[in-house]
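Quick entry, no commentary yet.
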Amino acid sequence: LELELELVPRDSAPRRERRKRIPDKPNYSLNLWSIMKNCIGKELSRIPMPVNFNEPLSMLQRLTEDLEYHGLLDRASQCDHSLEQLCYVAAFTVSSYSTTVSRTGKPFNPLLGETFELDRLQEDGYRSICEQVSHHPPAAAHHVESKFGWTLRQEIAIASKFRGKYLSIMPQGSIHCSFSQSGNHYTWKKITTTVHNIIVGKLWIDQSGEVDIVNRKTGDKCHLKFAPYSYFSRDVARKVTGVVTDSVGKAHYILSGTWDEKMEYSRVLQSSKGVNGAEGRQKTVYETLRAKELWHKHKAPEHAETMYYFSELALTLNEPEEGVAPTDSRMRPDQRLMENGRWDEANTEKQRLEEKQRASRRRRENDSSSRSLEEGQSLVESTYRPMWFEREEDPVTKELVHVYKGGYWEAKEMQDWQQCPEIY
């Protein structure tokens, strides 16, 4: 679905006044360990949790927060050279973690068929649609299009395991970003998030792992390393380093910074093999030009600590909006009650919605088992079809993924939502 490339200068586009506050988080105490001690080694998506551990946003809204620094992709679309473009795409992947540093609240698990749209076409040149396409495992499909010539799509399934002292959150699935002018198509995956001090102490979050961002057209690659926090390390905390190489493995840029603050890049003049590093491996030494800033984090809103440490964008995501689909996360009653500080009512409502979802699933399975199942499909696969996404083999990664089939924005234009399931 192509957008007209009629660029409006940013400063002349009308900017809607959006909210800058949400009600303060109430000071309810509840012992996390009292619930978590029964969860060791289990898949957490199957364990009902009270809203007391949540933040008043759904996982679909958290996924949409990846767009906080969409300007990096706007800049990338203007790059003449694909290797420099890759630096901006890499900075974008790092920036998506910057809002997580103090966000220890768990997002709401979306209900099957729940959607979330973010239409910032007038203000920022992009619009985004997410849909929960599977409940077990929980998976969301996301499609973003920009009039600055880029498209982003992802399907992310969240696996989470409680390991005793800490909780591991492992997003699975590929992210795709393509640029219409150059035809460059980049893919990468998300890293593991760890929530520490589940039993005692203050909860804190770390991001760790390695990411390869690959340009499928040229073979260029950026290898990023997110260093895990270490009490004994002299390195700066939350450190990220990266090397951008061409298709034959020659380094062109070095990236460095932190995932919660900023990223810089330096052009490589020459590289040489240095002395042996740890484990007897030779370290490569790069001679580079002076570093330039790629990205830095926005200042946190005033009083963020009383508002779940939300960023400026996060504060606006659950703001009521006219004309959205009846399945939109903004319409979700338990989440709205929680945002308004009415947690006891929110917990009651959450139980009602989850029971309603289970009843719908049982109904689908009964209907389906009375008919002959489609060949080669499980009962669950054959009984549910998402509204706005369809499952197909990804031509690039060969994975089976849900891809946007179109129609959402047209339905919004007509205010024709009669096909939407009644999930609330």
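second:
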Amino acid sequence: SNMEATPYTLTEIVNKLTSDTRSSPTDINSAIGYTFSPEPFTYTHRDVILYALGIGANISQEDNSELKFLYEGHEEFSTIPSYGVIPAQSAMMGVSMAAVLGNFHMANLLHGEQYVEIKKPIPTSGTLTHKAVVRDILDKKSGAVILVDVESFDELGELICFNQFSTFVVGAGGFGGKRSSDYVKPTAATPDRPPSASVKEKTASSQAALYRLSGDYNPLHIDPQFAAVGGFSTPILHGLCSYGIATRHILKQYCNYDVNMIKSIKARFAKPVLPGHTVQTNMWNEGNRILFNCKIIETGDTVLTGGCIELNATVPTTNTVTPSEVGSTSQLKSDALFEQMKEIVKTSDGELVKKIKAIYLWNITKDGKTVSKWTVDLKNQPGTIYSGEPKGIKPGCTLTLSDDSFVGLVNGDLNPQQAIQLSMLSYG
């Protein structure tokens, strides 16, 4: 039935899902297809700029490419495409989530996946109206997944964007419902080859405090006591903030910051990010779509998975990996080699550990400064290589050398003894 849902009906949906007396699937199914019309969303250039700042947009003397997202007087002033989730999220929060949170703690509500499709460039100000529908409810045993589709329209009634929110309700599963849905916008499989490009960016310790001003005021992202209830040692960054950061990285790497290039964005939120952590977006160029994931340099965790940005044009594909720091022009060749070494260790089935039995920390320098660190653990089975300092282990040997010298060493152009004698390689 396509009844107009009220907050009352939506409360009922989730109360059915979370009540101790598990409802039958027929009860739950009656909730599927409920439509609701949330409050219109009015925003100005200030909101678009605040969002851009919240996902790390910045300008420096060397690079002001992102000025067009931060200055309303810029001739190309535009809205970053991932902002399309914000009006729709206000729709979700305004009606469904406030209502849905009937009888369980907000810390048990997890954002699982997000899809946004941009139908027309998002205006830099305006009023959007929405149509929302509970598209499907899935039983994942440990919890329930609620799929909500939201369409957002401009003042002329034209469709601006379509969002699909996939929300996981911890503890609400086991009602005997179906496990999968044809309505789910799928995530993409990550290719098993080194990325075409990588971009690293350190988030600010105040990133979540800034991002929440775009409308997601969940205390999980700011209040340490509330975060503790959700099992986190500290407030975590919004998943949609990382999603926006990844979008910026792809705009930079493949779109020359042209917002009209982006057709849709999909990703799964796999693990939390802490404000202050360094996000590395790994990208695989497939022509008219860029597959991506996001890793945290400090922990090695992959936090966004199955990422895919569809483009409105085809980007020439090359196989070069050019990791770069946002806000700097450093492009490290060594990162690509470490990624390849990682694959070699993975496929060696522990043989390398049996032979080498040592832990190395590599400090990679550029212009005399350390720009990247890699840990090579060939002491503990099955052997691992990850970006950053060793985690809970002591390196037996620390090696410092420049990015170019490392490439020479790996290619065999540079002899290790010679490198040490010429002070190109230091170790301790």
